[in-house]
């Protein structure tokens, strides 16, 4: 589970709200995290592996969108591994973890493990948030024909740079002047929570807007490709819209409990005594959402692969051979270039205009294909409706 409370717990003089949730059935909570993260990790890897029965096709050009989707899955896998490692140590060595609470302890390894594991989990999931934002930006730019593989370098710089900068800044402010003597008070911890939740809130606010604009641009492209809007193109646009909807639905399901939990805990922190009877229902709600976070946060990796590619099946093909992998789609522009080469001696104005129109159609098909990565039916319909496929 990814929560800034993990870093806050590393301070010996932690606040009462953090103490409340971290001390609530820690064995059960760690077991839930291990189980959920392990299941998600195995199913995510299963989704990404090549499957038996898939007809080998020529490897297409990699697109920036397919690369981003793969990087999101990698961030989820590494973040899940961090959760499994942290929870396993927490369960297996309770005496080692107990030394974190010692104010003037001489053993620095418990605190080092606490900070290191919490930062690893937070950094990987924060990077996943930034990559998801980049995916929305890239989808819009691809439709506008303003993106490509060259932009992936800029995405790397933005994603990892912002993720590391915000994580280090939040941790430095939280543990000032030192880990053994963290400053007390909400004012000191608030910057840490802000730097943690900025990318999450950015995805919640900005991605739906970008996805909506991308869907509108896709509809315009499909209409302008041949001057008509056929049933196949209408279905393709609907499937792209459903793909974006599934992505946002998974994100909201997996992380809305974090926002609710933090709101409840901040409200408890503002009370003089969080153990008062009138606050019982709020304490119960905070503890329930805390357990829900342990279940849903690690499951993001597997649920995202379902939203990206659909269910790819159980039959794994471990034989090493050159074949298409699930996160790369069939580019109809590549098909057009290889299977239907243009004659060399086209000199007339009519043939030149046809070549220009075909080029525009290829670019449109490539842009739409990038947005429907992993959806075989969409790619087949796109290829069949393409003028190249029809022998135009």
Summarize the model shown.
The protein is mainly alpha-helical and 392 residues long. Helices cover 71% and strands 0% of the residues.
Q: Low-confidence stretches at least 5 residues in length (pLDDT < 50)?
A: 56-61, 322-359, 379-392
Radius of gyration equals 25 Å
Count of beta strands:
0
Shape: elongated
CATH fold label: Rhopdopsin 7-helix transmembrane proteins
Proportion of residues in extended strands: under 5%
Structural class: mainly alpha
SSE order, as H and E?
Answer: HHHHHHHHHHHHH
Report the CATH C-level class.
Mainly Alpha
- What's the architecture in CATH terms? Up-down Bundle
Helix content: over 70%
Query: What is the number of domains?
Result: 1
Query: Biggest β-sheet: count, sense, barrel?
Result: none
Oligomer: single chain
- Please count the helical segments: 13
Characterise this structure.
The chain has 392 residues and is mainly alpha-helical. The chain has a single domain, classed as Rhopdopsin 7-helix transmembrane proteins. Helix content is 71%, strand content 0%. It contains 13 helices and no strands. The chain has helices spanning 5-8, 16-22, 26-48, 64-92, 94-98, 109-143, 151-174, 186-226, 231-269, 280-309, 332-339, 349-371, 376-385. Helix 3 runs antiparallel to helix 4 (64-92) and helix 4 packs antiparallel against helix 6 (109-143). The longest helix has 41 residues, at 186-226. It is elongated. Mean pLDDT is 78; it is low at 56-61, 322-359 and 379-392. InterPro entries: GPR143. The chain crosses the membrane at residues 28-46, 67-85, 119-141, 153-178, 190-211, 244-267, 287-311. This is G-protein coupled receptor 143. One of its GO terms (molecular function) is dopamine binding. Residues 347-366, 371-392 are annotated as: Disordered.
